[in-house]
Write a structure and sequence with these properties.
This protein has helices at residues 2-72, 74-94, 99-121, 125-128, 134-149, 166-187, 226-234, 258-266, and strands at residues 153-158, 192-199, 202-209, 238-243, 249-256. The protein is an alpha+beta fold.
């Protein structure tokens, strides 16, 4: 009788051990999957945090730059407008000649101030949120430039567009913006072409006009080009200027693009 009870106990214990081993065998893959899923979620959270920090840093840098640009650009333009309007009022009161010329120059100055102001209120949220591509945003800006200045402007996009890091997209867009402003301020051009080329391992931006051109002296110090050179350096790119009296001006930015290179390599 004791032997029979012992045998039953042994069988029961063997069943329990077998059931435990079976349950463990079922649970082990589930645990691996749970651990893998948790690691994936952690990696995604880290990537989201990295992107948030990148966007916050880009926004802070852009705010600082905009504050400097407004002080150096729009504020001075408005001050000059105020002084010139006072001079025009004096000429009109005295009935002196030269009022037409002054009003013509004021019209151009007011357009420049309007162009500068609209640069800073231009809605970049679609680009920042990924709802619009860089080329679409550049197209909208060029259309805005043409509307304000009346200068015919065209955008040409070549290659297969790949998304760039937000800081690179924002910096490249601002270079387009400032290049167009320089065209209006200095070039006396009748047309402008913006070329955006997505090439293997790099993005090429060209802003070319048919204006009066200038003699290049020093390290891109004049004609509003120092800011462009600074932006290009911050982006890790290269800025080249081609110009000459009566030959127009072509501003070329070459920007490394790891995403474009990876896409080309996978192809």
């Amino acid at each position: 009788m004791n032997a029979k009870k012992l045998a039953v106990r042994v069988i029961n214990m063997a069943g329990i051990v077998a059931a435990g081993a079976l349950i463990t065998g079922w649970e082990r893959p589930r645990r691996r999957e749970a651990v893998a899923a948790e690691r994936q979620r952690a990696a995604e959270n880290l990537e989201l945090e990295r992107r948030a920090r990148q966007a916050e840093q880009a926004a802070a840098e852009e705010r600082s730059r905009i504050a400097r640009d407004i002080h150096d650009g729009i504020a001075q333009s408005l001050y000059m407008l105020s002084i010139s309007l006072e001079a025009c009022a004096e000429l009109a009161a005295k009935g002196e000649r030269g009022l037409d010329q002054r009003l013509t120059s004021l019209s151009r100055l007011s357009k420049q101030a309007l162009l500068d102001a609209r640069h800073y209120i231009f809605d970049l949220r679609p680009l920042q949120e990924g709802r619009a591509s860089l080329s679409q945003t550049v197209q909208r800006q060029v259309e805005e430039f043409q509307t304000v200045t009346g200068i015919p402007a065209e955008v040409v996009v070549t290659g297969s567009e790949s998304p760039l890091p937000l800081t690179a997209s924002m910096g490249l867009y601002r270079i387009v913006q400032e290049s167009l402003a320089n065209v209006y301020k200095h070039a006396d051009a009748s047309c402008v072409e913006v070329h955006l080329a997505f090439q293997q391992g790099e993005v090429l931006l060209q802003v070319a006009d048919d204006g009066k051109g200038f003699v290049i002296e020093g390290e891109h110090g004049g004609h509003g080009l120092s800011n462009l050179s600074e932006r290009a350096r911050e982006l890790g790119g290269r800025l080249d200027i081609a110009s000459g009296p009566g030959q127009g001006t072509c501003v070329t930015l070459t920007l490394p693009s790891p995403m474009t290179a990876a896409k080309s390599g996978n192809g």
